[in-house]
Amino acid sequence: MYTSECKLDVRYYECDQMGIVHHSNYVRFFECGRNQMMKELGIPIEKMEVENIMVPVVSVDIHFKLPSRMGDTLKVVTTLTKKPQAKLVFDQRIFNQADELICYGTVIVGFISADKRIPIRAPKSFLEKIEAYFPED
Fold this sequence. Notes:
Blueprint (H helix, E strand, L loop, with lengths): L1 E8 L15 H16 L4 H6 L2 E2 L2 E8 L8 E8 L6 E9 L5 E10 L1 E2 L10 H7 L7
C-alpha cells in the first residue's frame, strides 16, 4: 500500500456565488493528488507519455460530506491499496484545515498504448517503482 498527501488552497474561481467550491472541481483536486503520488513514486505522467503510455480515467466515484469554501486549505490523501495489473485504483479523500472529511471517492485509470490506442497491462517500469510497497504474500 502507498499513500500520498497533497495540499491545495481553494481559489476564488473554484467557488460559486455562495463561496462554496463547485462540485466539478473535486475531480480536479483528485487529479492533483494522483499526480503528486506519481511524482513521489518517480513515475510522473509526463515520463509515462514519453514511454508511449497514456493513463486515461476509466471511472470516478465521489461522495460528498461537507462543503469547501473560499480560503480553505484542502488536504488530498491518495492511496493505492493493491498492486495494479491492467488498472490503477486510487482511493482518495479530501479533508479541510480542521481535518474534517469533505469528500471521498475512487478513481480508476487504465493504461493504453499511445500510438495504437489499445489497453495494455501496467508497464514494467511502473511496476518496478511500486513493487516495494506491495510485498508478495
